[in-house]
Amino acid sequence: MILIKQILSYLILLGLVLGVVYGVRHLLSRVTVSSDYTEIEVPDVDRSPSYALKVEPLSAMEGGEAVAYSIPQDRTGQGNGNGFAWIAGMPGDMVAITKGVLLVNNVPEGHCPAMPTQADCPPFPVPLGHLFVVTTGHATDSIARGPLPQPLILGVVESFP
Amino acid sequence: MSRMIVLGVVQFAIAAALVALSAWLIHGTWTHWSGGWHLQAAATAARAGNRTAQTREARAATQLLPDEAVAIMPEIDLMAPEGRERLVALQARCPSAQQGLVELAIALSDTLRGQPPGAVPADDAADATLLTELARLRSGAPGTPLSSLHDLGAPHQSVLAAWAVAEWRSAFAAQDWPRASRAAGLVATLLPDHPDAPLMRLAALVLAADLDADRLIHGVVAGVDRTRVLPFAEQLARIEPARTRAIMTTVLGLAATTTTAQRLTAEVAAVGDQGLSAAWVQQDCLANGQVDLARSLIERMPEADRGLVQTALRNRVGDLAELCVYAAAEPACRPRISVPVVDGALISFQLSNDYGMLPQSNLVITLDGAAVAPAAILRLGPVIGVRTTGHGPGLHALGVLGGEHPIYAGNVGL
Lengths: 161, 414
What we know:
heterodimer; A: 7-stranded antiparallel β-sheet; about 20% helix; about 30% strand; elongated; B: alpha+beta; 5-stranded antiparallel β-sheet
């Protein structure tokens, strides 16, 4: 009888631990942004403060997917928080800016609005362990902050609600 | 009873072991998390060009993760021989998965210190190509387009950035402005948080084959310390004098509708502490006919440069009487004329000096001792024509004076 009680208590404890692990994992797999975040625009979608993420290695990601990332502080101290961006270039893709148009492997990138004031940039390969990401406003994406290093990538956004 | 005690002791032992295991896991996790946090801070500082913060954060990461190459390498100065020695020592003890990274860092260190690039991991074709190009650039050879990297895979960010900076320096030194423009655009895109990135954006736009003033004027240097921007902008304006207006309007934060006089006034105000040189601004003022503004700068110039500026001003003003007096101290300023040529009733000659001065005032011409009426004197730049109406054929005495000072006296035959 005592043994059964002990086994039951262990099972309850195990259940609690698994519950905590699942809860933490669920929290970590969601990302929140401030309600006034406007760096990325998704048409016909209700803005929500929280999005589900799929954490996967860089090699499994694809151009055109949306990623959530930690915005690194720049030299003025701006940029804390999370952001979303479209993947424009994967490691090894050749990225260039010509007359305000972002070209990836010599093809205009679909998600990147024209940048009429941007200086031209000759084709260069996206570095290893980095993504070239773009947003609508260009305030915190690779145009403004450079190629995004892997440690800052939180995951791929599974779907916008 | 004894069985219960044994069970209790076993349970206690298991619990103690689990607590110890948990503490070890928590400590390890905390150490890695803290080390990773410091590494991220070091990477951010490196992108922003803050070497002090980069070293501080990298040292903190090194203390937490002493055997991790990725934690130790940001602290190492690749330009220093001691840095290479530390990398070699690190290569001997770091995990095998990080050996290639350290090997690449050693090759980059060698290249940056002017040595031939050493071995590079076999699967790093793009890095190997970039290091070879980097070595060529550092030896003074011209660069090759980066498109040659296509299909070679992805290089490491640090190698790519080092190549881009070297390409910019090489192109600038070679005065290959289109190439310098492309390299500046690449540096600005790869390292947009670096303090010099706005200057690179400025250079990319100014040195481009086609200047787009709209692109230039939309805040490429907004928020950047003027004392850093203005000397660089002046250098670019010396390279591309035809684009001076667009460059200075942009870096001084002036409206596109600003007049030339307003821009030059702003340039004069920015001389000295703000970074523009008095000599260059004075030239810009003279080139735009703002002699008084140019004269106002003399007091703000180094003593050694004032004589040259005063000479330039006098020649710009073109007062022949003043130049005749000043010629005693500076013979090259003496006005002189070419051999007079007679064509019908017109005597013509060129009046200038060694500085290419255009005569502006105090020009007096006499014919047979009588002053020629101003209406009979024709001027086209340095070329002077004198109508001889009323003077018959024969030899006539021609005199050219700067006020009361003789410049030429001789005879001409009509």
